Amino acid sequence: MLIIDTSHPARDFNERSGEAVRQIVVHYTAAPFASSLHTLTQGGVSAHYLVPDPP
């Protein structure tokens, strides 16, 4: 079962002022999960989902 952890919000997340989503961008991070989580929750970047490698 997939559990979505929402306890790490991105600083730059916003509600898009009612704008419709026009595209989805998928990025791959080669860094370890903890490093990627730190980077993607700091100012200047954002991610809505970060998927860890399987155990």
Overview of this structure, please?
The structure is a single chain. This protein has 55 residues and is largely without helices or strands. 15% of the residues lie in helices and 0% in strands. The longest helix has 8 residues.
Task: Reconstruct the topology from this structure.
Layout: H1 33-40
How many β-strand runs? 0
Structural class: little secondary structure
Question: Assembly state here?
Answer: single chain
Distance separating the two termini: 14 Å
How big is the Rg? 13 Å
User: What general form does the structure show?
Assistant: globular
- What pattern of helices and strands is seen along the backbone? H
Helix content: 10-25%
Largest sheet: none
Strand content: under 5%
How many helices? The count is 1
**Low-confidence runs of at least 5 consecutive residues:** none
What does the average pLDDT come to? 84
